[in-house]
Design goal:
The complex is a heterotrimer. Chain A is an alpha/beta fold. Chain A is built from 5 helices and 6 strands; from the N terminus they run E-E-E-E-H-E-H-E-H-H-H. The longest helix of chain A has 11 residues, at about 50-60. Chain A is globular, with a radius of gyration of 15 Å. Helices cover about 20% and strands about 30% of the residues of chain B. A 5-stranded antiparallel sheet of chain B has the order 3-2-1-4-5, with helices on both faces. By secondary structure, chain B is of the alpha+beta class. Chain C is of the alpha+beta class. Chain C folds into 4 domains: about 5-110, Alpha-Beta Complex (Sulfite Reductase Hemoprotein, domain 2); about 140-290, Sulfite Reductase Hemoprotein, domain 1 (2-Layer Sandwich); about 305-395, Sulfite Reductase Hemoprotein, domain 2 (Alpha-Beta Complex), CATH 3.90.480; about 410-550, Sulfite Reductase Hemoprotein, domain 1, CATH 3.30.413. In chain C, about 40% of the residues lie in helices and about 15% in strands. In chain C, strands 16, 17, 18, 19, 20 and 21 form a 6-stranded mixed sheet that branches. Chain C is globular. The termini of chain C are far apart. Classes of the chains: A alpha/beta, B alpha+beta, C alpha+beta. Chains in contact: A-C, B-C. The interface of A and C includes residues 117, 118 and 122 of A.
Amino acid sequence: MGIIINDTGFIVDKWGSVSVLEIASDVDPNHMDILADCQYIRINFSNFTDGRIFSLARLLRLRGYSGALRAAGPMISDQYAMARRAGFDEVEIPIDLALRQPENDWLARANWQTNDYQTNLRATVNNPSKRRG
Amino acid sequence: MVNWKFSKVITANALHEGDVVYLTKKGTWTSRLQLAHVFRIATEAEKKLYAARLKADQVVDVYLADVRRNDGEITPVHFRENFRQTGPSNYFHGKQNEI
Amino acid sequence: MYHYSEFDADFLTARNRQFRDQVARRITGALSEDEFKPLRLMNGLYLQLHAYMLRVAVPYGTLNSAQMDQLAMIAERWDKGYGHFTTRQNIQFNWPKLQDVPDILDALEKVQMHAVQTSGNTVRNVTADPLAGAAADEIEDPRPYAELIRQWSTDHPEFQFMPRKFKIAVSGSPQDRAVTKAHDIGLRVIKRGSEIGFEVFVGGGLGRTPMIGKTLCEFLPKSDLLPYIEAIISVWNLLGRRDNKYKSRIKVTVHEHGLDEIQHRVAERFAEIKPSFGGLDQSLLARVKACFEPPNFKSMNLKSFEATYAKDSSFRSWVDINITTHRNPNYAIAEISLKAHGQTPGDASSSQMRIIAQIARRYGHDELRINHTQNVILPHVHKADLPAVYEALQIANLTTANIGLISDIIACPGMDYCALATARSIPIAQRIALRFKELKLEHDIGPLKLKISGCINGCGHHHVGHIGILGLDRAGVENYQITLGGDEGEAAALGVRAGPGFSTDEIIPAIERLVMAYLQLRKNPQEIFLQTYRRVGLAPFKAALYPAANAPKDTV
């Protein structure tokens, strides 16, 4: 059990008892089989230096996953923008980490859509691409 | 129990300046090796090392370094620690320039 | 050169503000040192032996006079009055204090400079041919591509916490002056018919397990550049080992999985990624290219240059050795040696930086380059201005005429500064330079690339030196191993270890014996050291290094 964070700050966990596909950060991306009706995916990691989760999230989105995507592990607030840009909707962190990283730290990175080089560079010439979510 | 081979100081870099510091007997940090406390008992050193690492607002990269005592003067065993004590050899910068 | 758009400027302002806040949170303890460390690294701040070290990016080695002046100011105000230019075309300050770094970053921002991703497990400074835009053999200026990659890699959400660092280099000429084959990704601009594209190398690296990069793609169309690089790094980010940092680099990943397997994975990933690129990057490329148009070349009379060349022997020597042919026949590429005999390779004082800046402004179309060999280059100087440039350089003691000679040594900072080092490299470089100056043999020896690393990480590029020196710790004493026959160009090759190492006292005489052997063995004075080595092999040089009378057991 941890603290759930999105752009509005610390929120109540709305997932409840839904069916969640759990993915480990060391999964082989070629063996990440997502069923068509999958709506909830959680990517689990145990160290904030494990940057695989961001590439996994991106791949899931590129492959058409449009359900809820959560990163669960000891993320630091400075990574929040990376998480959102990579395709995560929200982050779940351990409670003791939240004590050192109050809500304001996370809200400070909620403007993740600004200063985003990569989205700019991927845009089309006539219509700047709209970010999904 | 004293192990006559165990002879170490606790050293680190100061968080703000980044310069090399050593732990004194009182538990403060000094930039002068000669004022460092030399540990002769491993368990005591480990205990103090653990405590020193908690002083994250003062120092970073805390570890134990071997030293010798020659006529009361503390000298590092490894030449890397010699450089940390003195400063670089290409300019008169760092500790050697701060008396 | 590139000028920031509003987007670039806004990014940097926000980034610097974030770092300032991160420093504050570190000091209060809201961030632990373990959490702060990757954050300070991705803003270029190391902790070294005696102090912090800030590594400032010089993107693809290009800067102007205002930027050089600002670096001089920063060195004076927040450091000890000098900076160190590196083998990745960056500049390092060795003595900043933590609480000053946010102010230093703000000062850099004023001149469109930064320290973003110059360290950490990120995509590092993209380096390029230091003679870009000026070299006679250039197919296309590589720097617009380097700038595109720089932007694309900046704060890339996927690639801030990778298995290890990632280094990319771009060359725009058949002659490779960017050491592309020693990088994680090397890009070489090539032409297929009339179409411009890249040969893509992967898995080069010079550290613990040196490897020459392999061709991953023989011809990559330039519009595929970003999605293809993203595919490579995405594959590696997920596949690269995170259990052992000595096996994390992509060169090991390629070695362990095989090039075919990696090629296959990259092709698959590229197919997934490419549709997400809409084409704006190519129109941005066009805008960036416009920033790299050649300067308005002047027309001037060459008579005074010719007269000075004829009558002033030291000017003539400097021109003969430090000047490279420019694509414009009336111009010259002037390399300023930061290797004065006995000085620390790559170091420049604030006053030297200012004089260099002034020369660039007045005579150099306001453009400067940093060479991976740790020298500064004025890429566009009209030959008629060379006498004035030389005179100005003399004031700053910057007229050492040794480019490409034995005293033009690449040396990492070594144990005098670096926390990773196992031995010192700077004093060895100083003493070798002084010895050969004393012997008055440098010009006779001719081109000889000597490179020194103070540890196995190889930041001094010793593996690709004609003569390489690796400083190690052997039983608590500095010990130096010699490698021979390395080459950093397009025919890249790794040097071969000559034999057991030498002590600090023995290494200089050993190098002397080596060079004397070359002078004896060479066919003629035109045959350079590397050529002689390739012709006669290791054995005669080994015999010279280890004279029979003291032949040691060859222990590994």
